[in-house]
Design the sequence.
């Protein structure tokens, strides 16, 4: 997933895996937590778990986190994006390709048992 570098964004990370991938990507882009710690050095996901959101402040390249309901209520002007892991994005891509082929009339059959 491409991080929106020049835009304040809220990323919803419903899994630990999504959180880990997001903070790695943000760290590579030069972001730090508000206390100036590297994003990968602090695991804030365990506090809020599937409600965890990470907010980027692009002008300062800093991050904060809070729960999804907080951001929905108080920051409805900032886009909320559900962060998808590489694996999730790959599965969605494969499914879309499958559906496109199905629409083209390609038939799929289950493999025959020997």
Sequence:
């Amino acid at each position: 997933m491409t991080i929106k570098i020049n835009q304040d964004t809220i990323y919803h990370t419903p899994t630990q895996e999504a959180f880990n991938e997001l903070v790695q990507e943000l760290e590579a882009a030069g972001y730090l937590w508000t206390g100036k710690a590297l994003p990968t050095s602090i695991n804030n996901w365990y506090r809020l778990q599937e409600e965890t959101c990470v907010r980027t402040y692009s002008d300062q390249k800093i991050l904060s986190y809070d729960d999804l309901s907080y951001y929905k209520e108080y920051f409805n002007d900032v886009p909320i994006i559900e962060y998808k892991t590489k694996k999730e994005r790959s599965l969605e891509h494969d499914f879309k390709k499958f559906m496109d082929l199905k629409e083209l009339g390609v038939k799929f059959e289950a493999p025959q048992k020997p």
Notes: The first strand starts at residue 9 and ends at 12. The mean pLDDT is 83.
